[in-house]
Design brief:
By secondary structure, the protein is mainly α. It has a single domain (17-182), classed as de novo design (two linked rop proteins) (Up-down Bundle), CATH 1.20.1440. The chain is built from 7 helices and no strands. The chain is rod-shaped, with a radius of gyration of 26 Å.
């Protein structure tokens, strides 16, 4: 009888160990998926890097663009200054993708939006100068800028998709339990600019 009791106790203990191992394995699997959705090749941190890369590409084009416009319209000093200042503010905005808060993203988006508006005003100015519009260097810069604006939109969309996938995963049960225990938090998304309907567009 005593041996039977010991056997039952051993079986119960073994069962509890198996259950504990299964729970730990399940938790580790959930955790690893969250890490992948955050930091993997298609995670939101990687797609955020792509967003920054495209904005940097646009920023790198601006000095040549301003210089070219200045060669034909030096007296449009106010518009040229606005572009230079907006570029400086935009390039000073550094955002840590691993700690992306709604406030940080809003500031980043606002600074880039101001630069977009300044570029839009610059293009309106360029319309007044036929010789500038016909300049091959200017036309090439226009083309590159247009392509970069398109790439920015694609990069932002991909970031939103990756972030939304991550957010959904950590908000659904039982993922939300593991997320709360391990410090994973919802990441903000890009939103449409409120002034987008009224802001000058970079069109060619």
């Amino acid at each position: 009888m005593k041996n039977k009791g010991c056997l039952i106790a051993s079986l119960v203990a073994a069962g509890l160990i198996i259950i504990a191992v299964a729970i730990v394995g399940w938790g580790v699997s959930k955790y690893n998926t969250m890490v992948e959705l955050r930091s993997g090749t298609t995670g939101y941190e990687k797609t955020w890097a792509d967003v920054e890369s495209q904005y940097q590409r646009r920023s790198d084009l601006i000095p040549n663009l301003v210089s070219t416009v200045k060669g034909y319209a030096a007296h449009e000093e106010k518009t040229l200054t606005e572009v230079v200042e907006a570029r400086a503010k935009a390039t000073q905005m550094n955002v840590d993708a691993s700690n992306l808060t709604p406030e940080a993203l809003a500031k980043f988006q606002a600074s880039q939006g101001q630069l977009s508006q300044a570029l839009g005003r610059l293009m309106v100015v360029a319309e007044r100068y036929p010789d500038l519009k016909a300049n091959e260097n200017f036309k090439e810069l226009q083309s590159q800028l247009e392509g970069t604006e398109n790439r920015i939109q694609v990069a932002r969309q991909r970031f939103n998709e990756a972030a939304a996938t991550f957010n959904a995963y950590i908000m659904k049960f039982p993922g939300n339990v593991i997320a709360a225990m391990t410090g994973f938090k919802e990441t903000p998304l890009f939103k449409a600019d409120e002034a987008a309907q009224n802001a000058p567009k970079v069109e060619f």
